[in-house]
Amino acid sequence: MTMKRNIIITGGAGFIGSHVVRLFVNKYPDYHIINVDKLTYAGNLKNLTDIENKPNYTFVKADICDYDKMLELMREYNVDGVIHLAAESHVDRSIKDPFTFAKTNVMGTLSLLQAAKVYWESLPEKYEGKRFYHISTDEVYGALELTHPEGIEPPFSTKASSGTHHECYGEEFFVETTKYNPHSPYSAAKASSDHFVRAYHDTYGMPTVVTNCSNNYGPYQFPEKLIPLFINNIRHRKPLPVYGKGENVRDWLYVEDHARAIDTIFHDGTIAETYNIGGFNEWKNIDIIKVIIKTVDRLLGNPEGYSDELITYVTDRAGHDLRYAIDSRKLQAELGWEPSLQFEEGIEKTVRWYLDNQEWMDNITSGDYQKYYESMYGNR
Ligand code: NAD
Ligand code: DAU
Asked: At what angle do helices 358-366 and 343-356 cross, to 10 degrees?
């Protein structure tokens, strides 16, 4: 029997947020989960059709920058926990439109923090039993050197990195005390939001926790990001735009493993702490792209190598960070979290999901997904 809780999850109709909402709604029937999302281009209620009618779930279309609305929601639902994922999340968009990133990621986080502060401080028990959990990214730490282009054994292995490819590309890793050094407008805005969250703990005593996770992959990711974009392009025989030489390294984690980590940390993480989340699973972009091509071709019944010709090297992303690699041993040692899925299994599962859910993808590429809100909730 779990305690009754009222939790706002922001950004729940996006990629990671939808997995977190699903996990909490299904696992904790005594919790009331209030999904607060503005439904920007990245928000898609079709990500949550399986739980949308559950009695412990409420969807509210709202902008986290709207402080009055956030305070109203805190009061209306007697909120005692916030899990904050809503953000502008795509680096390429931040290069073209940095203002929107500063507004949502910085001012949106600040308005949510202030609403929680004002509401919680108005209660007799104040911050007791409350928690503000901010989801952040490894990108705030900047970029690591790629000192071993051919790869070396990682210092620590996890289920995620236990497949045939277990490489890392440098000796250094991001740890929780690594100095912030963001390079893109996206990561600069996320870094700023992290600082605000910590400031609310240090200044007002708000019970906060921050996590910084590596690249996620899996179902329901918006097809502007590398993996779903490439799967969809292969299916439509469209070019696969590889930035630069494809040598940048990312550390990949299956999205449900991230959601499980969020569950663990929300409940058991120590107040004011930071936890890194990752699976010691580094891949060069070009290597991961080859795995995707091979998997899609096999599942579509194409001959091996059929889609290799779609690889198209294009101008590099401005300020493209060379290598991200997370050391998540603190989380493992203190809270016992580990990735549960081997990367090759995760990629197979992911590619299958996108190929089996072409309607979901076509709804996005046609723009139809944005009409779903009105059909569900009317024109509110
Ligand atoms: P996403 O872009 O798929 O989803 C973001 C969601 O936030 C969307 O549903 C969108 O409608 C909502 N949103 C945007 N602006 C809003 C606003 N002003 N008010 C209310 N809702 C708003 O993002 P994602 O990839 O799921 O990332 C979720 C969070 O996790 C982000 O904070 C991101 O920085 C962080 N993160 C992502 C990754 C990753 O690999 N995707 C890794 C580490 C951390
Ligand atoms: O590290 C965590 C971050 O991972 C999150 O904070 C971000 O929200 C999330 O978008 C992701 O950022 P990346 O920039 O690493 O993800 P993206 O999928 O955009 O790109 C992955 C890598 O692939 C990156 O090195 C750029 C490259 N790329 C991407 C696209 C979209 C290409 O070569 N071609 C492409 O078309």
From this structure: 70
57 is catalytic: no
Q: What is the pLDDT along the chain (380 residues), one digit of tens a residue?
A: 467 999 999 999 999 999 999 999 999 999 999 999 999 999 999 999 999 999 999 999 999 999 999 999 999 999 999 999 999 999 999 999 999 999 999 999 999 999 999 999 999 999 999 999 999 999 999 999 999 999 998 888 888 887 888 789 999 999 999 999 999 999 999 999 999 999 999 999 999 999 999 999 999 999 999 999 999 999 999 999 999 999 999 999 999 999 999 999 999 999 999 999 999 999 999 999 999 999 999 999 999 999 999 999 999 999 999 999 999 999 999 999 999 999 999 999 999 999 999 999 999 999 888 888 888 777 66
Closest-CA residue, ligand 2 atom 7, reads 89
Q: Answer yes or no: are the C-beta atoms of 249 and 146 closer than 8 Å.
A: yes
As a whole number of angstroms, the distance between CA 224 and CA 58 comes to: 28
Is 139 an annotated catalytic residue? yes
pTM, rounded to two decimals: 0.98
CB distance 380 to 61 below 8 Å: yes
**Amino acid at residue number 138:** D
Most ligand 1 atoms within 8 A of CB, residue of 8, 9, 10, 16 to mutate: 16
Q: Which CATH architecture has domain 5-377?
A: 3-Layer(aba) Sandwich (3.40)
Reference 227, options 246, 240, 214; nearest CA is: 240
Active site (annotated) includes residue 138: yes
CA angle 193, 113, 61 (to 5 degrees): 95
